[in-house]
Amino acid sequence: MSKKAFIFDLDGVIVDTAKYHFLAWQKIAKSLNINFTHEDNELLKGVSRVRSLDIILGLGNVQATQEQKDQWLIQKNEDYLSYLVDMDESEVLPGVLKILKLLKEKNQGIALGSASKNARPILEKTGVLSYFDVIVDGNDVSNAKPDPEVFLKAAQLLNIDPKNSIVFEDSVAGIQAANIGEMVSVGIGEETILHEADYIFKDFTQIETSFIEQLIG
């Protein structure tokens, strides 16, 4: 049995922290008299915190100094972290644990490849940190998705060829990053949005054991 690299995004794939990001960004937007909706929030999927702020400021046509931006970024993260305090195992999305356990049993390489700079505490709070052999997050990379840096680094740390890597992603930028890195891309979400992925599932409950075994080869 061959050993592959299975690389997971965090937000919207392992856990649904997107709702907390939304609330924190909405609070910043409201303070700037910007109407920030759930539809607008889709623009932030898979992009860095700095880029997310620029997108929000663009929505409101707000000009700001770097000092102001830095302050808002700090405030956003503090608000976001305050929402994470009560996170526990119940925050892990349905079907995820079954897949992680299967991959562990099959002795596959398991990595996290996320733009989040809070990945480790989130994985700890939700009780899944021990499943991951490698964690590459926003603290470890300089290029945001769709640049494949985060996934390529994860594969490198697992000592597995990118072409033997499988990425699970819920964002367009993440799927594009996997494809650019010549990895197998598995979209978690809506087919209309993630149509560039090699495979698409609504969520992990739809992923059969046989599909994972097929990927392992």
TrEMBL record:
Cofactor detail note: Binds 2 magnesium ions per subunit.
Q: Does the keyword Magnesium apply?
A: yes
**Residues the record marks as site: Important for catalytic activity and assists the phosphoryl transfer reaction to Asp8 by balancing charge and orienting the reacting groups:** S114, K145
Which processes are annotated in GO (biological process)?
carbohydrate metabolic process
**Catalysed transformations (reactions):** beta-D-glucose 1-phosphate = beta-D-glucose 6-phosphate
InterPro entries in alphabetical order: B-phosphoglucomutase_hydrolase, Beta-PGM, Beta-PGM-like, HAD-like_sf, HAD-SF_hydro_IA, HAD_sf, PGP-like_dom2
Keyword Glycoprotein carried by entry: no
Q: Which residues form the active site?
A: D9 (nucleophile), D11 (proton donor/acceptor)
Superkingdom of origin organism: Bacteria
Give the protein family. Belongs to the HAD-like hydrolase superfamily. CbbY/CbbZ/Gph/YieH family.
UniProt name for this protein: Beta-phosphoglucomutase
Source organism per UniProt: Flavobacterium nitrogenifigens
**Organism lineage string:** Bacteria, Pseudomonadati, Bacteroidota, Flavobacteriia, Flavobacteriales
